[in-house]
Amino acid sequence: MPCDCYGFSEDSDSIVFLDGALSWLMSKESDDADKYMIVTLDLASEKCREFPIPVDRISSLDLEVLGDYLCISVNCFGSRSEAWIMKEYGVTESWSLLYSIDLGPRYDSCKPLVFSKNGKMVLLKMGVQRRR
User: Which residues form the F-box associated beta-propeller type domain (predicted)?
Assistant: First the structure.
């Protein structure tokens, strides 16, 4: 869908490059919750597009490139972490859940670093909760 960024604000420090396009996260306040979108700018055509992320209840979100895929890491209020990959760049229906992990009392976040070619193993960076 074409990009209409009016009313959106940049929501992340990460801008990633994949398949000739820059992508970044944007959010827009709505009546009940923030609405998150990924905005892309194709550098060859100079066309901007936006597409939704596959989840809506989150406390933090990171955008990255993992292998050849666009990936979002989702922290669900410190209790669960998920990663989603977009198997076909720019196709909203191609989002696929890579993992969903209960973090337990020791960790407060995790991010994927790399996954195996067969997709069965993922190397994660775990964030340890700090004691106060």
Answer: 13-122
